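Quick one, probably user error.
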């Protein structure tokens, strides 16, 4: 599957040749990214099912550390480290949050009355603590929010940290018709949907990279072509 924007990060960014994950599924790996610690120490033994305890509240996250030295912090996308109030991203060091707290949900827009119905915190799209209606494909929505976050920081003197966690390419296999049309030669429906979802994510990574360039904050000094 062509992924030119992902490939550009590998070629022009920093490549970790010895990287390790602490688990084979979602939540443990996310916990390790957030804390820098082995996930078992912090209450994450496996993926976090709906309503189950998440990341231990007393453990600082990377956002806590960066916020303490003056960073503005944001998270867009999937959290999956607990739905409890003490585990909400805005309680874990993030100034801004747009996304959902659980492990998976449909990629497609919500029904118009979703914000008025009983809120399912595992799947509900939130802006901060407020439920909002998703009006576009999640991959597009999360990239738009990330790009807007970067644009709002343009020209400012305060450093920022943005954690962008797409739910792609996770189940359910929800693909847009315009992306399915790119892969007419893939007969297997699931494989075709996977390719379409990956292509959509790559396009939207490009959207975020463009926002970084447009904001004038991409340091050419620290990029290198990796052969």
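Nope, works fine. Designed sequence:
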């Amino acid at each position: 599957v062509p992924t030119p924007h992902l490939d550009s990060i590998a070629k022009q960014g920093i490549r970790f040749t010895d990287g390790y994950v602490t688990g084979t599924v979602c939540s443990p790996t996310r916990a390790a990214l957030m804390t820098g610690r082995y996930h078992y120490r912090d209450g994450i033994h496996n993926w976090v099912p709906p309503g189950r305890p998440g990341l231990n509240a007393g453990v600082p996250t990377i956002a806590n550390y960066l916020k303490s030295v003056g960073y503005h912090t944001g998270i867009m996308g999937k959290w999956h480290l607990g739905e409890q109030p003490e585990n909400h991203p805005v309680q874990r060091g993030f100034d801004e949050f747009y996304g959902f707290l659980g492990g998976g949900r449909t990629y497609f827009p919500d029904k118009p009355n979703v914000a008025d119905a009983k809120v399912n915190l595992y799947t509900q799209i939130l802006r901060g603590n407020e439920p909002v209606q998703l009006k576009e494909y999640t991959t597009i929505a999360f990239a738009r929010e990330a790009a807007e976050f970067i644009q709002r920081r343009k020209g400012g003197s305060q450093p920022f940290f943005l954690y962008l966690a797409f739910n792609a390419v996770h189940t359910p296999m929800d693909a847009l018709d315009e992306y399915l049309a790119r892969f007419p030669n893939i007969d297997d429906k699931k494989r075709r949907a996977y390719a379409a979802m990956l292509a959509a994510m790559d396009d939207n990574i490009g959207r975020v990279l463009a926002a970084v360039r447009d904001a004038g904050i991409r340091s050419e000094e620290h990029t290198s072509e990796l052969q």
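The helical segments are 4-12, 26-35, 62-68, 138-152, 177-180, 189-214.
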